[in-house]
Here is the input.
Amino acid sequence: DAKTTQPPSMDCAEGRAANLPCNHSTISGNEYVYWYRQIHSQGPQYIIHGLKNNETNEMASLIITEDRKSSTLILPHATLRDTAVYYCIVSAAKNTGNQFYFGTGTSLTVIP
Amino acid sequence: EAGVTQSPTHLIKTRGQQATLRCSPISGHTSVYWYQQALGLGLQFLLWYDEGEERNRGNFPPRFSGRQFPNYSSELNVNALELEDSALYLCASTRLGGELFFGEGSRLTVL
Here is the structure.
């Protein structure tokens, strides 16, 4: 079962930063935070993941609080193409494989 | 590099029939995950295969089953179809410990 809590929906003005929060208060020490997004019933797309340090890639930044109980995905300059459902997942990366449980995500609408 | 491929893209069946969905993982990936996404809902975990073995299954009845072949491709079978089985079925592959890469899904409609 999903171990994360996300707001069901958010709006963001085009060109502004979109900050998507996620609570994962029961996260274990060996569990990573992953973010995926799904555009209009296509297959979900991997965005970024992290353990305890902040991470940045060409798509987004991930800020994880020091106690690791919450995180924020930042899309620095949102475009209309970023309108999607964003899923936050916690999963332990092990040599025996990961368990990935998706919740209902946050539906982000980027407004022109 | 080819991504995860799923077939068929669309499938229409009637109640009581069986459906078979197929997934080819990315080359080098040994794990395959199956998810069900009913219209307007999130992804529900169905099955996880690795190295030919079923590693875990979600809270679905036994009429949902599958297998993974020696080439790591996978098949999902749904027997005795019910109307509520209508959904997008998503397959994802990964190397152990890595992130998931998804296919575009197979949309099953049960009439």
Summary: Chain B touches chain A at residues 4, 31, 33, 35, 37, 41-45, 48, 50, 55-56, 88, 90, 92, 94, 96-105 (CB under 8 Å).
